[in-house]
Structure prediction request, 55 residues.
Amino acid sequence: MSLKSSSIDSNSDEFEDIDILKTELSKLQAENEMLKDETSELKAKIQELNKLVDS
Prediction:
């Protein structure tokens, strides 16, 4: 295998790794948004329950 061919293979592997990382990042960002929404919903429920307890 020539040095040039080896370099191309290495670049292809790096691009593949970058794509995998971008995909993982997107999944984590989506999960993060979902968890933020869930947190907001739970905070609202806690507020409602606190009002009930206080009354």
